[in-house]
Amino acid sequence: MKAYGASEITAQKMVAENPSLQMIFDIHRDADKRENSTAMVNGVPAAKITIVVATGQPDLPQPHWQQNHAFAKLIDAKLNQYYPGLSKGILLVEWRYNQHLHPRALLIEVGCQENSREEAERSIEFLADVVAQIIAENN
Fold first, then answer.
1. Which of 69, 85, 120, 123 is deepest in the core (most CB within 10 A)?
2. What are the structural domains, with CATH classification, of the chain?
3. pTM recorded for the entire structure
């Protein structure tokens, strides 16, 4: 978790330099098996997406977790609507993952180490489509 201490400095700088920032995504691959992390979407294999929402801990408060959770539910619903089978759902964890820095900050896990780069990139394209829809609906 030391990496999050270092990345917090970068994320704080991004937020400070970009006050109109609408959302922050921390994108990773999960540790899992291919059979649990692959879906057929529009007839092609794609890396499944898990949305992680950090609820904080007593010594690591997370004041935005409910807003982040609402944002995660919106993304998850749209993924399920437009790309059935792609989302593995939302995982609530007692940590922060720098989500305390913004009310629309999420950790996105895209597939696992056994998914191909193409499968992960395909899933990111699907996610980007959903995020673009959300932005368009809110402007």
1. 123
2. 24-137 (3.40.630.40)
3. 0.93
